[in-house]
């Protein structure tokens, strides 16, 4: 009996959420959507402020021009989700899954991606400044044309990763593995390269000077 009651309660709760999404109200403040399922739902023009999506099922959702401010996505599954011109400000994605997700011209400023599964996900432009990528597996990733100002790549795996025209100013790359990475045309001003593996890294002459100066060399131009 208790199992049937629990299943009925879950169905009612999911039904209420669907009504919310279909209503004209697109403003949600401190709402709790933890562990709920939004599979294949579309979010266009929504605003979520300080909401919980902990361990929520967000597989194959689509967001467009939707804003999430200080929302908790820890442990959530965003596999194969698509996001266009959406904003995620100071959101927590620790332990979440971005498997095969696509973010096009989005702003994920201040996001925490600790222990996030970033397998096969893509970033197409946008602003990912102040993001915590530390210890992330990002080999062969493409960060071209992405803003990464002051983002933290501490001990990240960045082998053969592309940063063409990316803005890495003041980023932290301490002990990152950049073997075979392509940094050409990237903004490397004030980047912390302490302990970085530069084996086979592609850079231009101007960037070489910036890197040497960051390590304490005095260049005679």
Automatic annotation (TrEMBL):
Keywords: Repeat. Pfam families: Pentapeptide (PF00805). It comes from the Bacteria. InterPro entries: 5peptide_repeat (IPR001646). This is Uncharacterized protein YjbI, contains pentapeptide repeats. The lineage of its organism: Bacteria, Bacillati, Bacillota, Clostridia, Halanaerobiales.
